[in-house]
Design a protein that fits this description.
Elements: E1 2-8, E2 28-30, E3 33-35, E4 52-54, E5 56-62, E6 69-75, E7 80-83, E8 91-97, E9 105-110, E10 116-119, E11 122-126, E12 131-139, E13 142-149, E14 154-158, E15 165-166, E16 179-186, E17 189-194, E18 198-201, E19 215-217, E20 225-231, E21 234-239, E22 243-248, E23 256-258, E24 274-277, E25 280-287, E26 290-297, E27 301-303, H1 307-316, E28 321-328, E29 331-338, E30 341-346, E31 351-355, E32 364-370, E33 373-379, E34 388-392, E35 399-400, E36 403-404, E37 407-410, E38 422-431, E39 439-445, E40 453-459, E41 466-468, E42 472-473, E43 477-482, E44 489-499
Antiparallel strand pairs: 1-44, 2-3, 4-37, 5-6, 6-44, 7-34, 8-9, 9-10, 10-11, 12-13, 13-14, 14-15, 16-17, 17-18, 18-19, 20-21, 21-22, 22-23, 24-25, 25-26, 26-27, 28-29, 29-30, 30-31, 32-33, 33-34, 35-36, 37-43, 38-41, 38-42, 38-44, 39-40, 39-43
Amino acid sequence: MSRSYRIPLAGPYTSRISATNAMPNTSGYVGIGVVGLMIVGNTIQATEKDARYINCFAQTISDLISGSKRVYVVKRPGFGTQSTPASGNTGQAVMVWTGQGTGQSIISAFGGTNSTIYDGITSLGAITGRCTGLTETFVGTTATLAITSSNNTGWYYDTGVGAVTEITDGDWPGDTETLAGTFAHLDGFAIILTTRGRLWASDLNSVTAWTANNFGSTNAAPDQGVAAIKWRQYIMAFSTESLEFWFNAGLTPFPLARANAMTQKVGCVDDDAITQIADTVWWCGSTPQGGLSIFQWDGALSRVSTPEIDSILILAGASNISLSALRFFGRSFVLIRAGATTLVYCVEEKMWHEWSTTTRLWFKTAGQSLAGTMVNYAVSNVGTSGSVYLMNHAAHVFQDAGTTYTARVQLPPMDFGTKKTKFFHDVEIVCDEEETSSVVNLLYTDDDYQTYTTHGASDLSNDRVRFTRLGSSRKRGWVITNSSNAPMRLEALEGTVTIGNH
């Protein structure tokens, strides 16, 4: 007897960490979700089994009148090349200098040994060491860039001097201690942390003048300093196993005081493993009990990573994790580069997916929404094109630097609640009908993702995207791929199946 089925394509991202040791019943299709995933065993890398969403993400559309919801899988937009200031070099930082004029200056740093700072394609000057951070402030009324380097030096560029200049004050903390992260700016003070756990402040209204005893000790826990950033009217001082909040108390000589009641017993793995969107901060951190997780601070501490994501972070290793963030399609995305994998958390959907391309272009990112300009910028610390990349919200492309990438929707294995053989008569992709050609391929696996059968291709520009004569299996995992430079928005798979007697 034949029966109809409809499978939603959007769902939770899951991953069996060990294909050899994972329990055989670690996942199954129940209702509209995947349940029961367990992490067991040890491995050096995550497998490619179970539900995966690569270069595509879930998008929920709510009807406030009827109260109904529809959930789609949407292909992410890509990056084109905005400019190439430093061909042959890797990117280290990018920012939009909002304090200078109309805020149209795109500041970037290129060079992994010694970095050069660029305004667009114009060099502002070189620093010794690799740039570890670009920030901006006002010194009086002068718009100023503040720059840190991997060799513990500090630098600045302002519109008055017109050149990148090293900070040479005899009390500069980098002369005697190891810097942790880059500058944070609060009420006219340039703040920087050291691995010794000292939070230093410059003299008021200066980035170049420093005083020998102008620091406070982040000693709520006996751990090592990682980075300091500004959050609202606080400085968040991250250490390896703790987080402290400091505010301007008007003290002398060091102006800040610790907000003791806000201290958290959660640390951060690296200064590159922190990112912000507006007044919310995300980072990869750990507790004294071990493990790695992605945490969020928006006035309260929460963990946003699932146990499965945490396991992937552990396999990648703390030294191979860095974070950045973007906003597009009205949604916020936290990008976590974990070794060779980029995990992406959609804040509004509270769901995970992956980004994958030949060269990851999103090591550091910046956004701009000003007048008629609404774009995202990015630089890569892997590729050596020396380019600043651009995601243009008015003209989306589905390529990265001219190379088309593949969106992959991979469903968990389904058996309709029985091990009996199923005969699949047809399957149709419920999707948007695109205006231009957008080719999709239908694949399936009947041996727990060891091998795949490519059944055929169709086009999302067709009125219907339907496949027939799909063979039989006891348990099947469906896969849809799209490698076109075109949009893709999918909702479900539906079809008919006959369940046999054996």
